[in-house]
Here is the input.
Amino acid sequence: MIGQETRDVERKITAMLKILSDAQAPMGSRMISVLLEEQGIYLGERAVRYHLKIMDERGLTRSAGHKDGRTITVPGLEELRNSLVTDKIGFVGSRIESLAYQTNVGLRSGTGRIPVDVSLFNRDEFPTALKIMNSVFQAGLSSSNLVTLAGEGNNLGNIVVPAGQVGLATVCNVAVNGCLLKSGIPVYARFGGLLQIKKGRPFRFVDLVEFAGSTIDPSDIFIAGRMTDVIKATADGNGKVLADYCEIPMLSCSKADELLQRMKNSGLITRAFLARPGEKICEIPFSPEKAGLVTLSGLNIAAAVAESGITVTNHSICGLLDVSRLRPCAELL
Here is the structure.
């Protein structure tokens, strides 16, 4: 029984199940070990194989029939949904912190790795989806206009594109957190939410989910619930889009302003909104020692596609990509 294992082993097994559930293709012990390390779990290949053997015996995973590649089973998916819910509270916030810390892009050199969101589309529907997404890019409602494509069997972050699908990676707004951290500015990611846009400008948050208390990325919740109105915001500047709210120390505002402008000039971000104490930002109060920062989500393009009725599968904050792989979205047309 799973309850007979130590809590530490349970956490490792849960982390490995999550990796396999995201992979969408058989994965071996070496890659699992690398991805575990990104989460702060240090297991060598031999230790990973030991845990995989336990998982095989429980029916949570099965061998793919070559080397030590594994896939997750239906019981494994069920176990992942039910296991250690208290440990998963704040999981999204931890993932944001982890990928922000690993961001190492150089704004002057244009090199390094940056966090991405990945969306998967059916190959036949992708041309139509691309037209919708291009409108969102042109309206400046995505975190960045830089993207990259991948066909079936290729990797984007931690995702392998399944057969018959096209993968699109967009710059995740966690990239802003990472660049701020690299410049010595502490960032506290507080909320993901629905940001109401009026006349092309941010007006107020109408729904918020706190990262520290969530086991699910807020963007996934709002897209699945058809709560966004990105297409309307694109068309007339009035609608509801996905955005995050963070806070930084008030004393770092001038340095943050300079850095955000450099990120815009380099094309890494489209827009970010910084408010100092005493100023109002999207009707969220913050302490006198903090400044509020609102960044647009890279998944606004996927939200618009979902609003149109086209099937799209999203993987938010799902890994890092080398900046050299990214191109302006206009080059896709």
Notes: The CA atoms of residues 9 and 333 lie 48 Å apart. Residues 2-86 form a domain with the Arc Repressor Mutant, subunit A fold (CATH 1.10.10.10). The chain has twelve helices and 15 strands.
